[in-house]
């Protein structure tokens, strides 16, 4: 891969060295277009494996894998040295590494009120518990929040978080370079005056890995001075100063996570979320990689574009076939007009990603109105009323544990409880929800009682079914129970907390509080985040989660359903407007203006618009 020097036009197109003004240092409202914007993504190394290692007090140098039934779901780095991967079969893994430590995730079993490490868990009778990992994940998130109080933090999955460092960077810049606090008094542009040149020599944060600006030139110069020299050969910008500050801050947070909780992480730092996530895997484990703007082109060009998230599927294949290309660099000559003509207006996103542009914001997820869902894909379908209680009890124990645990960080209570069941052959699940009353002592049994009531309302009883041959046979293949609208109670509602453990507060009339809460349940028409009402056609979409999902995965699942539904509208719009070319597989498929109305429900193709969905 040859190294590219960057002609002026290119620098401009990639926008690698945008002008930074006083306003960018002083204003908190410049948002995603602030040229000082700096984002970090921090991901736990082999997360579940580290959790189990810590729990068992095993030496981190020993090879360990975490199992879910017979699948490896996490492999630690010492085990990876034996060639073991997530896809490896357990017997093969044991052959590759006879001393391998194998831990099965904890499971819930009917009749037990908490998850256990059962010696012989079985998908037919047990349900996986991710409680340990959720708990550790929350502790890690708290370290982010306490060590980076002024940064915006977004939990992106059970083991990773994005951090927008722009605000703390602004503060530190003003401390270190007080001359940036105001433009020169005679400057006509006032706050829009460009900053003076950045410091001549920058201390590139030492324990970070700086992606080389010219990888070819750096080859063979792997001395301890190598990276420093290499970085110095491209003059530092104010954004590089910002990156160095973020590198120090994130390094501190990662050290805190390591020292207080015992977990190693890998991190990426760059000008946006897309690049931060990409560069986080530049070097793993226990590493932090930084991508300067100047290093973006040579980093992206040789990258196989099908490895980029959202380009791993059909659109990636279409692009690869259409242009006989593999790398980002090979597609850079396609101009925006051509791309949009061929792939629709939304392909702007692809065009931008190839140039390292991403305007996605780092947004803290609101702590309120969350849902908790326990779900089980049934190894043996439920065919009659008598089969259901066993699974309801398992699911309710899990929810009880999770709700009580959530209370350790605040007084939370769900507004409603819902039962979801999926009949074999049905595309959607059936759901029913009801307000969840306050109780003094929360146990699995209280939840079971509420759910069994919902079951009776949702399903024809065995007796009725026997009496009426027209009622279809029951064959339920997934059952789930969710708490929806889980909220931290406001100050005024705090007395309700007494219902959990201690005696109820004397100051408040409990029945009045319950009545108020009930009313607010009834008022809340969109309590369940598992459903979505399409603003275009008012259709209500719902998702049923699968076992092992965490809340983020479920949210992603709902997003996918939404995206697919939006595709349907998109396809409808297209069929009215224009003919687009879709080079799918062997031939080209055309959506012609003649094709009107909704596509068949059985449509298997992934939707068009989802190709261009940003996140
Ligand atoms: P990842 O971050 O994808 O992987 P990892 O943390 O195990 O390893 P790495 O060091 O490469 O980041 O996933 C985080 C956890 O999520 C992982 O430890 C186990 C769980 N997980 C699954 O249960 N199933 C899956 O298919 C994946 C990808 C992850
Ligand atoms: Ca990870
Ligand atoms: Ca991850």
From TrEMBL:
<dbReference type="InterPro" id="IPR041298">
    <property type="entry name" value="UBZ3"/>
</dbReference>
<dbReference type="GO" id="GO:0003887">
    <property type="term" value="F:DNA-directed DNA polymerase activity"/>
</dbReference>
<dbReference type="InterPro" id="IPR043128">
    <property type="entry name" value="Rev_trsase/Diguanyl_cyclase"/>
</dbReference>
<dbReference type="GO" id="GO:0007064">
    <property type="term" value="P:mitotic sister chromatid cohesion"/>
</dbReference>
<dbReference type="InterPro" id="IPR043502">
    <property type="entry name" value="DNA/RNA_pol_sf"/>
</dbReference>
<dbReference type="GO" id="GO:0070987">
    <property type="term" value="P:error-free translesion synthesis"/>
</dbReference>
<keyword id="KW-0227">DNA damage</keyword>
<feature type="compositionally biased region" description="Basic and acidic residues">
    <location>
        <begin position="515"/>
        <end position="524"/>
    </location>
</feature>
<dbReference type="InterPro" id="IPR017961">
    <property type="entry name" value="DNA_pol_Y-fam_little_finger"/>
</dbReference>
<keyword id="KW-0234">DNA repair</keyword>
<dbReference type="GO" id="GO:0035861">
    <property type="term" value="C:site of double-strand break"/>
</dbReference>
<dbReference type="Pfam" id="PF11799">
    <property type="entry name" value="IMS_C"/>
</dbReference>
<keyword id="KW-0808">Transferase</keyword>
<dbReference type="GO" id="GO:0009314">
    <property type="term" value="P:response to radiation"/>
</dbReference>
<dbReference type="GO" id="GO:0005634">
    <property type="term" value="C:nucleus"/>
</dbReference>
<feature type="region of interest" description="Disordered">
    <location>
        <begin position="504"/>
        <end position="528"/>
    </location>
</feature>
<keyword id="KW-0479">Metal-binding</keyword>
<dbReference type="GO" id="GO:0006281">
    <property type="term" value="P:DNA repair"/>
</dbReference>
<dbReference type="InterPro" id="IPR052230">
    <property type="entry name" value="DNA_polymerase_eta"/>
</dbReference>
<dbReference type="GO" id="GO:0008270">
    <property type="term" value="F:zinc ion binding"/>
</dbReference>
<dbReference type="InterPro" id="IPR001126">
    <property type="entry name" value="UmuC"/>
</dbReference>
<feature type="compositionally biased region" description="Polar residues">
    <location>
        <begin position="223"/>
        <end position="236"/>
    </location>
</feature>
<feature type="region of interest" description="Disordered">
    <location>
        <begin position="216"/>
        <end position="236"/>
    </location>
</feature>
<feature type="region of interest" description="Disordered">
    <location>
        <begin position="579"/>
        <end position="615"/>
    </location>
</feature>
<keyword id="KW-0863">Zinc-finger</keyword>
<feature type="compositionally biased region" description="Basic residues">
    <location>
        <begin position="587"/>
        <end position="604"/>
    </location>
</feature>
<dbReference type="GO" id="GO:0042276">
    <property type="term" value="P:error-prone translesion synthesis"/>
</dbReference>
<dbReference type="GO" id="GO:0003684">
    <property type="term" value="F:damaged DNA binding"/>
</dbReference>
<dbReference type="Pfam" id="PF21704">
    <property type="entry name" value="POLH-Rev1_HhH"/>
</dbReference>
<feature type="domain" description="UmuC">
    <location>
        <begin position="39"/>
        <end position="312"/>
    </location>
</feature>
<keyword id="KW-0862">Zinc</keyword>
<protein>
    <recommendedName>
        <fullName>DNA polymerase eta</fullName>
    </recommendedName>
</protein>
<feature type="domain" description="UBZ3-type">
    <location>
        <begin position="527"/>
        <end position="577"/>
    </location>
</feature>
<dbReference type="GO" id="GO:0005657">
    <property type="term" value="C:replication fork"/>
</dbReference>
<dbReference type="Pfam" id="PF00817">
    <property type="entry name" value="IMS"/>
</dbReference>
<keyword id="KW-0539">Nucleus</keyword>
<dbReference type="InterPro" id="IPR036775">
    <property type="entry name" value="DNA_pol_Y-fam_lit_finger_sf"/>
</dbReference>
